[in-house]
Amino acid sequence: MLVQDRPTSKSTKPHLKSRRTHLSDHFPDPQNLAFPKWVSFNLFKITAISILALTVALLFFLHNSNDSTATFFCFNSHPEKPLPIQFPKVNFNSIRPISDKSSVYSSFHSDRWIVISVSDYPSDSLRKLVRIRGWQVLAVGNSKTPSDWSLKGVIFLSLEEQANLGFRVLDHLPYDSYLRKTVGYLFAIQHGAKTIFDADDRADVIGDDLGKHFDLKLSNVDVMQERILQYNCKNPNRTVVNPYVHFGQRSVWPRGLPLENVGEVWHEEFYSEIFGGMQYIQQGLSNGLPDVDSVFYFTRKLGSEPFNIRFDDHAPKVALPQGLMVPVNSFSTLFHSNAFWALMLPVSVSSMASDVLRGYWAQRLLWEVGGFVVVYPPTIYRNDKVEAYPFVEEKDLHVNVGRLIKFLVSWRSSKSEFFDKVLELSYLMAKEGFWSEIDVKFTAAWLEDLVAVGYSQPRLKALELDRPRPAINTADWREFIPRKLPSVHLGVKESETVNYEIGSLVRWRKFFGNTVLIMFVEGSVEGTALEWRLLYGRIFKSVVILSEKANADFAVEQAPLDQVYKYLPKIFDRFTSAEGFLFLQDNTIINYWNLAHADKSKLWITNKVPQSWTTVSFKDHNAWFSKQADMVKKVVSSMPVHFQVSYKESSTSDQSLTICSSEVFYIPRNFVGDFVDLVSLVGHFNIHQKVAIPMFFMAMDLPEKFDPILSTMIYKPETLSGNSSISYSAQVPALHPWTVSNEVGFLKLIRVMAAGDPLLMELI
Question: What is the enclosing helix (H) or strand (E) of 195?
Fold first, then answer.
């Protein structure tokens, strides 16, 4: 930030010379006093002068410190609680118009614009963009852009020219970022834009004709009567999809796809159809280097060889129904005027997350005006310059995007005007921590600027998401089988052998795809939470991580291990359509491929693993067992008759107590209600997890009716430390103990588990 130097004012005081006071007037002559007596006589004055000198030195230090202001004020104020986020008050009917009076392009108008950000001199790709007929290229500069930047045929907005446009958003934009494209969007709308292509100056449009790839005239009769393939809504729990699978690349995923959805590599069972005309946002794919995240980029590289990935350019475009989302980027996306409000790039998140968060935010709002997103075959080609960005730049994506999608799909608004809904959603996203209050203010400024340049907010339409979904007649099903194109897989060229491995992954995912994994992490979650989600998220519907301490950054919830069962009903309520819940502690590994033949309608637990499930006589043990047994008796006595009968029939003696280590167990949907009822019966009793879980299981059903799937697991609790791949077996359903406390340990685990699931090697 530039700060003007304040002028030094002239002193109005009289000259100090006439008022000079000599030190001799205040201190007696030391020659007349012995030195100790002189010091004693002047001690007060010496102390005062010393304190004054120290104060001056401290102030001088603070003045010259980079953080002088903050440092100074920390001595004068107590830390305050953060103020609540304020909802912006905007009257969209009283906004004054903003017209372009300063630039040389004030009288220029065009219907079609290509908006790019430039930080270097014009590239060859940019020169090709200029040659596309019927489109005006607008280049937006930033603090990195050369001061003498120019290219014939391009409108260039320097920082100085942007500042003269009078837009409110300028107060919030960083100087050195591509996010300044926001100014370009407003400039294009101000100058007559009906269509804006959000582009990158490093990409070549295939065939140099955007009209061959996108639907440019939505009012065209042919476009409105065209039937577009649409992803099916059969699974109401599916909220996001990987479009690369549809276009022939199963092992590639786009930036912004939640990592837990990376393993969804199967094609659609069937598609539905929708009429065209309202595909207000059109996402094109990129050949060469697709829009991929750093996880994919760093795990798929063949040394220094650049990517050259191709998508099926003959695959039909595909639409997203309400309730289903797709990652949308900022370098190959076409926006029609009804979606110009969706061009806003948030500024409080990392630059690699900004366009993706914008895309999900925009898709949810798009449903309010009846619009939808369509993904198109490859429209551009990007060269891989082998210039990757660090993983930390994507933190906002990998930590929050899955939670964001669920939040957006569940969000509802009672506002009667569209822009009021936009403001409300941005405000609630800030309260939920997806971005900060800065973007709430930025949204308000953006909407005000839109109105000021003459943009009219679209009309609201009935939200189809809340209507009962009609059953799709099989006669209306449309089938499309994607091609299997050559790809890059684990740093090697994909071959036919991968087909079998992917087929296995599809079967496992189909088996567990509606099962929620609840995982308790005892150690630090910073180095393992994302890894566990990456490992098991490929297989399960969702991975919920619990720990002794909550961690919002990694979406970790707090629950005490010794009574974690009391927290499970909350998770059950969250996933009402899940068919089962598998609990797992992080010191136990499951080989999910060996669980895929179990009965998901039965209870699973380690009742046939002797070292895990034991019965003890509480009379022969210490007071802890006696107290636990007393509480169990009280709970059992309050159970309904069917629970009591089952529990007593399952117990070996009324003088014994059943203990289960409970590192892994499964509760099917048909037993969830029973489990919740039993938890409520425990109430305030401090029954330990190892006592409560076997009590619940014996009350819910007889042990002989449990599925014995876990009976062959490796269970060696005496192995307290030191993992060994020698003790690992891919042939058993589970293994205990196996401790993972950091990324290095996770990599070791992946390597040994790859014996059962070779595709795991793609994670390292």
Answer: strand 195-199
The predicted-structure confidence for 11-41, as pLDDT tens digits, reads as follows: 333 333 333 434 344 444 444 445 455 545 5
**658: which strand partners?**
615
Asked if 360 contacts 342 with a C-beta cutoff of 8 angstroms, the reply is no
Which pLDDT score is estimated for 30? Answer: 45
Orientation angle between helical segments 641-650 and 689-700, nearest 10 degrees: 110
Which pTM was predicted? 0.61
Mention every residue, 6+ apart, whose C-beta is less than 8 A from residue 116.
126, 129, 137, 138, 139, 140, 181, 184, 199, 200, 201
Please, are residues 632 and 655 in contact by the beta-carbon 8 Å criterion? no
Helix (H, G, I), strand (E, B) or coil at 713: coil
Kindly calculate the radius of gyration of the chain based on its CA atoms and give it in whole angstroms.
33
What is the 3-state secondary structure of 9-34? CCCCCCCHHHHCCCHHHCCCCHHHCC
DSSP states of 94-115: SPPP----SSTTTT---SEEEE
* DSSP class per residue in 415-478: -SSHHHHHHHHHHHHHHTTSS-HHHHHHHHHHHHHHHHTTPPPPPP---GGGSPPPPPPGGG-B
pLDDT tens digits, 282-328: 999 999 999 998 888 877 776 677 888 999 999 999 999 999 999 99
Spatial separation of the C-alpha atoms in residues 465 and 569, rounded to whole Å: 27
Judge contact between 571 and 543, C-beta under 8 A: no
Reported as a pLDDT band with limits 50, 70 and 90, residue 221 is: confident
Contact yes or no for 307/384 (Cβ under 8 A):
yes
For residues 355-373, b (16+ Cβ closer than 10 Å) or e, as one string?
bbbbbbbbbbbbbbbbbbb
Instruction: Return the number of other C-beta atoms located less than 10 Å from residue 42's C-beta.
Output: 16
Contact predicate 507/514, CB 8 Å:
no
The answer to whether the beta carbons of residues 761 and 752 sit under 8 Å apart is no
Q: Is 92 exposed, middle or buried (0-12, 13-18, 19+ CB in 10 A)?
A: middle
- DSSP code, position 550: -
Look at the block and give the residue holding tokens 């969209």: 92
Residue type, position 512, single letter: F
pLDDT at 322: 95
Q: pLDDT at residue 153 above 80?
A: yes
Proportion of the chain in helix, strand, coil states, percent, rounded to 5: 40, 15, 45
Cα–Cα distance for residue pair 344/355, rounded to 1 Å: 9
Q: Are 494 and 254 in contact (CB under 8 A)?
A: no
- Least confident piece of the model among 46-50, 157-161, 626-630: 46-50
Q: At a CB cut-off of 8 Å and minimum separation 6, what does 326 contact?
A: 240, 241, 243, 254, 283, 320, 359, 363, 373, 375
**Average pLDDT over every residue of 642-653:** 91
Q: How many CA atoms lie within 13 A of 589 on its CB side?
A: 27
Is the pLDDT score of 243 beyond 80? yes
For 532-591, the pLDDT digits (tens) are 998 999 899 999 999 999 998 889 999 999 999 999 999 999 999 999 999 999 999 999
> Is the separation of the CB atoms in 224 and 140 below 8 Å?
no
β-sheet bridge partners, residue 335: 196, 281
User: Among positive and negative, which fits the CA dihedral 206, 207, 210, 213?
Assistant: negative
Q: Structure tokens of 237?
A: 């729990």
Structure tokens at 261: 């959805």
Separation CA 647–CA 668 (nearest Å): 19
